[in-house]
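Quick one before lunch.
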Amino acid sequence: MKVIGHRGAMGLAPENTLLSFRKALELGVDGVEFDVQNIDGNLLVFHDDTLERTTNGSGLLLDHSIDYLRSLDAGQGEKIPFLHDVIELIDIDTFINIELKGLRTASLVMELVKLLDKDRYKKENFIISSYLYSELFLVRQLDPDIQIGVIADELPDVALSFARDVNAYSFHPSLSLVSKELVEQVHEEGMLLYVHTVNDPDNIAKVKAMGVDGIFTDYPDRVRQG
Ligand code: G3P
Ligand code: MG
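Model of the SN-glycerol-3-phosphate complex:
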């Protein structure tokens, strides 16, 4: 059962910052998850469409220059990181779940993964996930082997059918969707099931008992303890 640090370890450090990824690694996670967006050809690790919740900036992410975005404080003096900086921080024994958050991210991310595949990382180090079917479809067109994760917060049958079509490696339902039956169905289809985002100790115990293959959590320490 894999412990996957959500946006690093966002319950313990500012989300999607290098500090948060260091914290997750310190806690011995099996994988880290984070969100990627394309700003004029630069891949930044950032979750929201707007800046207010997690930085000292304001307005829409996409309305700003890369220089302005990099000048912001994303919490405890951390900057919004570039994707390549986050990947370089993560050791090769920890898997990297890149969630494609905005449109037009798929081909840039796949270019980077292809480059890294020649270096110290292997394709097996990565899972590329999204709610955005068009982006995942493009990922599959660009690479027949890369591990794809399909995220679902509703309509599990529709999401599962897409997961089948795109030959997904893993299915990532929300806590509200997961059940023992869904875990069994996903396994019968030859995929792994990673549930998001589970922080409460009782829920952690419940999903473990259902036989999930992995848990996305803001508190990797709690999953390890349970
Ligand atoms: O990948 C699981 C989870 O991160 C998806 O939701 O909104 O936290 O990116 P969100
Ligand atoms: Mg995410």
